[in-house]
Amino acid sequence: MKIRLPRLGSLSSGLFWRTFLLLSVLTTLSMSAWFGVINFVQREPLAQQTAAQVVSVVTITRAALTHSAPDLRNELLFELVSDEGIRIFTMDDSDQVEPPPDSALMRDSQALVRAKLGADTRFSSEVNGVPGYWVSFKIADDRYWLMLERERVRESVEWLGWAGVVSVVSLLGAALISGLINLPLKRLTAAAREVAQGRHPEALPEVGPLEVRQANRSFNQMVDDLQQVESDRAVILAGISHDLRTPLARMQLEVEMANLSSEAREGMQSDIAQMDAIIAQFLDYAKPTETSSFINVDMAALLAECAHEVGRQADVRVTAELPEQAQVLGNSTDLKRVIANLMENARRYGKTPGKDVAEIDIKCFVRGMHTAKRVVVEVQDHGVGVPDAQIAQLLKPFTRLDTARGQANGAGLGLAIVDRVLARHDAQLEVVNREGGGLKFTIILRAL
């Protein structure tokens, strides 16, 4: 099984890293305690074993050299080198000597060796550039170096290396355990994110520990229930559209054929048109946005089209600053509805003081690079704006701040639809008062 480690940015909050660090700390403390106990209990026996090995080799070598015939001494030295890995050198005052590692085990073993071979016994880890375990000894008045291969001495302390291996394996085990613990929650989080974005995730596997099975089973049931609600809502929306708009169409026909004054006819037609617009807003607000319908959308071209359509109205002046292209992934119809709602909101409520015209500024640009690349759309008017404390209320359904923005007809769903559609596109919407008066809407979409 492949476990993907999370980014370092999640170190402070990710469950994987918290679990891993906790297990690592516990493992490290346990290994440290074990190492301390072993070091305390075994140091003296290990020092005695190492010292006995060194003393034995030096004693045997010295005895062999002392009692061997002079003509056989070279042959004996050759056998010691080839068979035992022992080399003998004459000590000279000009020798370049490196001191041995300063550790408690080394100090104890050196003290035991000196007690057997003499206080003037010297030790070195390297003589004249040749590494090894070097011990000095004397034969009569001649001084010699005896060099042992380091591997012969390491055998007595090789458990230190095994302790390091165990530590590494323990940390790898901690990472594996953390991954196994985090994997079900990671799957659940990813599935919940898909639901939040309007998609229908695959059913989570109902396996593993009891708590994981229960959580996944409940989540799968919730997703099924949401799908059923979506299906029922689609049926209800279709029924509302048919059952409400059919009487409105009949009323419109009757008004056209009735013997009414022009003023009464225009009033009734206006009321019917307003009711039809309110029904359309209800349907737009309740209509889900399916991510399966997302395609590549050029926001620059879409904004230019919307600006052209709105700019044909006599009470609107549109200024657009657009790039050559700005590609995003989304539903072109819904994104066009978002821009149209923002511009209609500006036309109705954002007329420039002292003028009967709404001046709307549209700006689009691309910022960032790679995964941080974003398309930013700004729509702003030159009206009176709204109090800062009431800006958050603008995006709530059925909210109209008439006292600040002037009287207008509608159900107060236009900006709520904008917020809902952008949430389905995983986009950000920021609303602030524009410097100099008016509102500024900023949309931030993930760029392609």
Automatic annotation (TrEMBL):
The chain crosses the membrane at residues 20-41, 159-181. One of its GO terms (molecular function) is ATP binding. Pfam families: HAMP, HATPase_c, HisKA, RisS_PPD. SMART domains: HAMP (SM00304), HATPase_c (SM00387), HisKA (SM00388). CDD domains: HAMP, HisKA. Residues 179-231 form the HAMP domain. Residues 239-448 form the Histidine kinase domain. The keyword Membrane applies. It is a multi-pass membrane protein. InterPro entries: 2C_sensor_his_kinase, HAMP_dom, HATPase_C_sf, HATPase_dom, His_kinase_dom, HisK_dim/P_dom, HisK_dim/P_sf, RisS_PPD. Its EC number is 2.7.13.3. It is found in: Cell inner membrane. It catalyses: ATP + protein L-histidine = ADP + protein N-phospho-L-histidine. Its main location: membrane. It comes from the Bacteria. It is an enzyme of class 2 (transferase). This is histidine kinase. It comes from Pseudoduganella guangdongensis.
